[in-house]
Amino acid sequence: MKTVNNQKGFTLVEMAIVLVIGGMMLGAVMKGQGMIENFRAKKLITDIESISIACLTYLNMYNALPGDDSTNHGWAGVTGGNGDGWIEGGTEKDGIEAQEAWQALRRTGILRGNPAATGAVQLPVTPYGGRYYLGNRSFGAGVGKRNYVGVNNLTGLIAESIDIKYDDGIYNTGSIHASDPYSQDTVDLYYSI
Known about the structure:
- About 40% of the residues lie in helices and about 15% in strands.
- The protein is built from 3 helices and 4 strands.
- The termini are far apart.
């Protein structure tokens, strides 16, 4: 009795070709994800620099920082600051200089957006889903006290990569600081103006 063994399947060469093609596709996907992440980081820095320039443009136009300007220039809903040269405040409280700064920048047309908006909704959204905000802090002996553009809810890895690229890479020195060491899951980043 003779049995016919007529099984069909892939040869080793065919399997190797499938694995090579699969590897190439996986590599293209991974490279695409890296490009997207690189774009988001560049967009974040561009936004921070644009906000810094907007504050300096306002300073040039009105001889005061936005929000800290003691004159409200007749703009409805904008309260004058104390004129001490520091943008005081936090992220979401109304009636403080950091919040008034966004309204003043929008009233002048330096930044786009609704100048009547208040609270967290008026803060621009970052490419990572957090918010930009303004304030001041001490950046240490080498830099001193500075106004800053803040970014909340950044991953420690992204914040560290920005610090390495644009400053010294250490979370609590130089002109870029973080709220916590970069080993934390999320940090706030402070970029001095």
